[in-house]
Amino acid sequence: MNEVTEKQGEMTTRLKGIAVSPGIIIGKARLVDRSRVKILYQYLISEESVSKEAERFKRALEAAKEQIIAYKNRMPDQIKQHSFILDTHLMIMEDTMFLNATIDAILNEKINAEWALMKSVQHIRQLFSQIDDEYLRERVADVEQVAERILRNLAGRKDENTLHFSDRVIIVAHELSPADTSAIDIGKVMGFITDVGGRTSHAAIIAQSLKIPAVVGLETVTNRVQDGNLLIVDGASGEVFINPEDDLIIEYQEKQLQHEQYESRIIRLSHLPAESLDGQLIELRANIEFLEEVTAAKDLGAEGIGLYRTEYHYLRGLALPTENELFEDYKQVAEILSPAPVVIRTLDLGGDRFSPDLAHAKQANPALGLRAIRFCLKEPEVFKTQLKAILRASAFGNVQMMFPMISGLTEILDTKEILGEVMADLDRAGMAYNRNIETGVMIEVPSAVAVADILAKHVDFFSIGTNDLIQYALAIDRINEHVAFMYQPFHPAILRMIRQVIKAAKDAGIRVSVCGEMAGDPLSAFILLGLGITNLSMAPWSIPMVKNLIRSISMKEARTDVRRIMQLDTATKVRNFAYAKIESLNQDGGEKDLSVRSRRENLRPLARKGR
């Protein structure tokens, strides 16, 4: 929502974007040109020029590799644990879908390198668009950023690092790549805002590690801001003010101080147990995608990994990963965290992602098609390779495995039959593994909720994936701008579903956790705790905030409050109740949890839309 007010002859503009790294900054804008290279010419080349054109592409690609390596070598110490992001860009350049496909297009179709490159990217973009997981779907941005770097080299543009400044500034750009953010001078760059991007973009992840506020997805901010404009950026609410009024500046200066005090306090206490005022211990785990994220998760107070996404090795190249490649990765995570648990989720991709011998017909609606456990059961050899790797890793730590998109009992029984076959294979090979490895399922399909009591008899644990459960239950695609506002974690139907799953797990004597975004949001976490959840898994940077919440509440009172919440009939009423309760808890000598407060302010316009 954008608003404009007058300020002594100037116009104060309020923009609303996606909050990706919390904090409040007030400073001057510095516009950075990160516009895309436009391909002006798409043309055919002669037979005798084909090899030269392929070599031109290879030179541009090699130059891009050298640039990425140089950025990697200059990364600040604060984000060296994220160097794998730049390694990902290097691997993309070696990916057969990227490298070979481009060269083949030049040689076979006799087209110029720029045209061939963009055809390869378009093919990859189509494949990624069919991935349901938001984090994985957004990885196509890395492919596009690599292509952009190569296009700049093909066009002869100099690779200029324009993110070093003489004064402290707020960067304003259309887009920032991981290479851009890794080169930020943290002494001068206060934060950044961009036209495009999402919560799980690599630039957002690096901003969180650098602890600089960032807001993305502002759509037109580069057209609205001029170099030197005064800005207020609220990285918790996603609000940006251009040329703010004096009263607004004073208000946000106070918020800035309060936020810094709050953040310092929760980080300082993040190593303490998540224990409520009445002595209830809550286990907080981290969701991760890469091995390199484990250290940051531990530093932020994670007590294990509640969701280890395993799709990365399947996305990095056209060839399927080998059993040993997967095993080495899983083993390292298990060893680093031992004896803490590591819950490894099996492959959650669709069949159309894989090589031609595994390809299936294009799916009109991939979110409801052949993906996750459905694909694994259809292609058991792919599944068995991953299961063997997980089982072998279980000999080196507290490894558990979890199966996604389970919709009914038959899938569990079929999965366990394949698991038994894999165990028999390992026994015959004399390989060590944990014969009593715990297995669980993600509850993210409404049918799984309906038969949770049946499923609970066949597994050791449930993990509620609220992101997909909300989308499937409410028939909402939250990346569709026309209906995204209807994505409602506080919808009474969602809360009743969660309560039903918790009861089924309790009756069967198995544990239940939540690993979706609701777990990392203090407002939602408060409700989940009151419903009886004692295990939450979230993005690592959310752990200190949620731990602080837990240490501020009485579980007995939370259960009482949730009984009242369950009587409310709209998402708006539920949200307002939770906001009021959390704000009352966060009164601590004048300090407030501004991340919660600003979210309340941020959602007021949506509440008026009927959410």
Describe this structure in words.
There is one protein chain. The chain is α/β, with parallel strands linked by helices and 611 residues long. It has 3 domains: 3-33 and 162-266, Phosphohistidine domain (Glucose Oxidase, domain 1, 3-Layer(bba) Sandwich); 47-154, PtsI, HPr-binding domain (Enzyme I, Chain A, domain 2, Orthogonal Bundle), CATH 1.10.274.10; 269-608, Alpha-Beta Barrel (TIM Barrel). The strands form 2 sheets. Strands 1-2-9-8-4-5-6-7-3 form a 9-stranded mixed sheet. The chain has an 8-stranded parallel sheet with strand order 16-15-14-13-12-11-10-17. A hairpin with a 2-residue loop joins strand 1 and strand 2. The two termini are 15 Å apart. Mean pLDDT is 85; it is low at 355-361 and 588-611.
Note the main attributes of this structure.
Glucose Oxidase, domain 1, alpha/beta, 3 domains, 17 strands, disordered C terminus, nine-stranded mixed sheet, 46% helix, Enzyme I, Chain A, domain 2, 611 residues, TIM Barrel
